[in-house]
Specification:
Blueprint lengths: L5 H13 L9 E3 L9 E4 L3 E8 L3 E8 L5 E6 L7 E8 L9 E9 L7 E3 L1 H12 L3 E7 L6 E5 L6 H12 L6 H4 L1 E5 L9 H16 L3 E8 L7 H21 L7 E5 L18 E8 L23
Parallel strand pairs: 1-10, 12-13
Antiparallel strand pairs: 2-3, 3-4, 4-5, 5-8, 6-7, 6-9, 9-10, 11-14, 12-14
Length: about 300
Amino acid sequence: MVPITMKSRHWIVAVLVMAGLPSGALGTTFSAGIENSRWILSDSIFACTLTHPVPGYGEAVFYHRAGESLRFFLQPVRNPMRAGEAALVIEQPSWKAGKPVDDLGYVRVEDNHDRPVELSSGTSERMLASLREGRRPTFTRRARQSDRPVRVRLNHVNYGSPHQSFRRCQSELLPVNYDQVQRTVVLFDLDKSKLSQEARERLDDVALYVKADDRITQVYVDGHTDSIGTPLRNRELSEARAEAVAGYLQDQGVPEDQLVTRFHGDRYPVAGVETPGPRHRRATVRLERENDDDEADPVVTQAQRKDLVIVD
């Protein structure tokens, strides 16, 4: 049982009112204490994950995948919150002077047990900054089975060093992820096989990713044309386009033994596009990777159930 001072009671009541909850129901708060507050970093050039175990609840996770924006989500063992709008505030520790609560508005709580709360990059950044300043983001929502409030609070204790490492990881992320380069289309002008500047930039990203991910086993390059021209010319042109792309990738460091080039003339037009035109004049790059059934998102371990649950 955590003692509640008059000052802390005032801001608790304010949060309850904001969340549409009766001020007399103080409910349950899930939060790590000073003695067991942990921030766990998982870092690579593909993704950065900063995980905060919330005792008795699950985990709070900041996640930044290469080529995407930062996001935050709550991952409970079992979601105790009712679907709807939760109040999100940034609490000032009771020993600090100044405004006790900063209101970040409402966030959506979905009716599931996986990630009931998932936030945009802007709100996630504000939460990261508040933790660095020694403040505590707190979510408040009605319980699933009653009108009593449930709060999930992040603790800033032991946050400093992992936060610095997380920021460093973010600065070292690749500019793209696997999903963004797994299938890449390069377009050509009519009767041409010369790479445009835009095509070179896209292929630069492909080459960068292939060299970074040792799970890539094969890079398929397929050349195509539209139906303008003779079959013989189209076959030659599709071969030239495939060779131009494969040669450029090889020049950028993709091993020759990973590259497979194929050329098809006008035999495989773009699905749904019946008339000849720019979309058919292309080369496609497809990456093949080991363990391609793996989830793109991190596997986040659950918080230890034996940890402390704070009940107000």
